[in-house]
């Protein structure tokens, strides 16, 4: 995934290159950054948690992301555009949640555990905006999966 809000699922075998110079797998738009890859446990039951720099969280089934060998991918979460010349909102973090896992949201030195039942208000369809996180946790720095 990139912080421009796009991403996809890739098999590990598609990441291996024969040539020494490497292989381009992810197309990154100008000015965007690549987010760390996430491990998928079960494509059928895992969920994707995506959080924006504006403090919105969206959970959707991983099966809604396509399995591609390379490319830009599809929109993971809806982002607001910035004013002319400004970058706007970005995708701050992505995590893949196995069934029954908790989500730990880090905002600076503070963190909060969200149990599976507490994540229900954030569930939706891929490419939607998601719901706002509680006050104090809208400046998300990272997401952590707790099994």
Salient structural properties:
147 residues, mainly beta, 4-stranded antiparallel β-sheet, 3-stranded antiparallel β-sheet, 9 strands
Describe, in plain words, how this protein is organized in 3D.
The chain has 147 residues and is mainly beta. It has strands spanning 6-7, 47-52, 56-61, 74-75, 91-97, 102-107, 110-114, 131-132, 142-146. The strands form three sheets. The chain has a four-stranded antiparallel beta sheet, with no helix packed on it.
- Characterize the biggest β-sheet: 4 strands, antiparallel
* Element order: H for helix, E for strand: EEEEEEEEE
Shape: globular
Mean pLDDT: 91
Distance between the termini: 23 Å
> How helix-rich are the residues, as a percent range?
under 10%
Brief characterization of the structure:
The chain is mainly beta and 147 residues long. It is 0% helix and 28% strand.
SSE blueprint and pairings:
Blueprint: E1 6-7, E2 47-52, E3 56-61, E4 74-75, E5 91-97, E6 102-107, E7 110-114, E8 131-132, E9 142-146
